[in-house]
Amino acid sequence: MEFIDLHAQQRGIKERLLDSIRGVLEHGQYIMGPEVVQLEQHLSDYVGVTHCITCSSGTDALLVPLIAMGIGPGDAVFTTPFTFVATVEVICLLGATPVFADIDFNTLNINPSTFEETVIQTIERGKLVPRAIVPVDLFGLPADYERIRMIAERYELKILEDGAQSFGGSIGPRKACSFGDAGATSFFPAKPLGCYGDGGAIFTDDDELADAMKSIRFHGAGNDKYDNVRIGINGRLDTLQAAILLEKLAVFDDEYELRRQVASLYRGKLDGILETQMVPSGYRSSWAFFSVLAKSTLERTQLRAQLEAAGVPTAIYYRIPIHLQPAYRYLGYREGDFPVAEEVSSRVFSLPMHPYLKRNDINHITEVIRKVVSV
Ligand SMILES: *Cc1c(COP(=O)(O)O)cnc(C)c1O
């Protein structure tokens, strides 16, 4: 059994993938070829926004909008300490200061009330200027954008949605990656929509922001690459990856439905046995990861050991919250500052999740868990 089975997916679409890759080898436009343009069109239609700007990674898809928003030294950017490090490192790379707010125990996403208290404290301290919030759609579940948007408007903050894990998720009729002033996603192979290397995309309805981001992605180009109107990066998606993504996007909705069925089977079987991430009504997770909470670190260790012995791979996302990571000590946080994120980090782990997980596998996994938990 695999944690994420990319081989099974590839078997289903292999011929189409090879045709698509061959097409790129034939026309030879490896940088910004026609597949990139086509993919951006398809992705913006899928998410339901005006602009999609593909990028070299999910990390660059977070960095580019922050550059375009003019985030820099002296600015406070609010986010969650319970995320992948990329969310936070892009803020630091620009010389701005990440300011953490604790997560909600049920959804594992940033807690809007705590976020607002943190904004107020930051204003009172008077050292940093509140500029933006980067909510993370953890494990694929969109954050509470209704409340986040109200608070962001009150304090004039930009919203950059970290939708690296949530492509395909939604709240009501609206798709993930469309909830902020800009939204970022990742095409890292293990993400819900993955390519065969690094890739990412930014989504926005803001024409001006889109123009700036396109330029930043391409060395700050004006009319052309040799007309540099702002400081930028090399942040483009390879044409080959775009060609692969076009084929993967074509089967994405079918795969999403399979993922949703896997999640629903898991949730049914684990009900009353293990806590799972809560999905509020009207929300749909992309089910990037299926994460559960053991009662304690000890129980987590036992569960993972028994699962491993039974041939079931598991993983821990994320064992150490960012405020306790060595590289981020300079921010001055201490253990105990974000009790919910810290507790969740000590108990969370993830079960195999992919569209091709069989009903028998899920029965097997949940049976092993039931035995451990009921001892
Ligand atoms: C994967 C991920 C990123 C970064 O994406 P890359 O494509 O690996 O650069 C950012 N934020 C979150 C929450 C992620 O899971």
Summarize the SSE layout with pairings:
Blueprint: H1 6-27, H2 34-47, E1 51-55, H3 58-68, E2 75-79, H4 86-93, E3 97-100, H5 112-125, E4 129-134, H6 145-154, E5 158-162, E6 170-171, E7 174-175, E8 182-186, E9 200-204, H7 207-217, H8 239-250, H9 252-270, E10 275-276, E11 283-284, E12 290-293, H10 297-309, H11 339-347, E13 348-351, H12 359-373
Helix pairs in contact: 1-8, 2-8, 3-4, 3-7, 9-12, 10-12
Question: Would you write up a description of this structure?
Answer:
The chain is of the alpha/beta class and 375 residues long. 42% of the residues lie in helices and 14% in strands. It contains twelve helices and 13 strands. The strands form three sheets. It has a seven-stranded mixed beta sheet with strand order 1-9-8-5-4-2-3, sandwiched between helices. A three-stranded antiparallel beta sheet has the order 7-6-11, with no helix packed on it. Helix 6 links the parallel strand 4 and strand 5. It is globular and about 70 Å long. The two termini are 25 Å apart. The model has no long low-confidence stretch (mean pLDDT 97). Residues 57-59, 83-84, 86-87, 136, 162, 164-165, 186, 188, 198, 200 line the site of pyridoxal-5'-phosphate.
